[in-house]
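Dear support,

I submitted the protein below through the web form. The confirmation email said the job was done, but the results page showed an empty box. After a refresh the structure appeared. I'm attaching both so you can tell me whether what I see now is the final result or a partial one.
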Amino acid sequence: MKDAAAVAAQVVALKPNYETVEGADDLSTEYASADLALCAFGVTAYELAAFGVPALYLGLTPDHAASASAFAEAGMGFSLGVAVSVSDAEIARRVRWLLHKPMVRRDMRQAGLSLMDGQGAARIAADLASALADARAKAA
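What the results page shows now:
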């Protein structure tokens, strides 16, 4: 991707009520009202999936692109590969295609909601507390 502003302009031109959001202060509000996201793969991909937002992922590195492929295989979005090797025209084409496929987006939404329950931190904390309790019991 060479020109994010050009891609954003192409998306907005698709339909009057489409908009692009960059640098929002309250992402939860944006996620709750989003039909589709185009994002760099990372923590944002997990957040989008937990909110049920279908996504197109761009990897900043080959490792990120590989991780994005796992999300794509799970049905939560599509991986476009490493960002520097994806043309603006290809990004716009994929966004346009997905915006016109409401059933595909619906399935992506359901996949995200079913796989990401937002309780990961609580599970990790419980596992750590359990491991600590076990270690203390063994030490006593």
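Response: this is the final, complete result; the empty box was a page-load delay. The chain has a mean pLDDT of 89.
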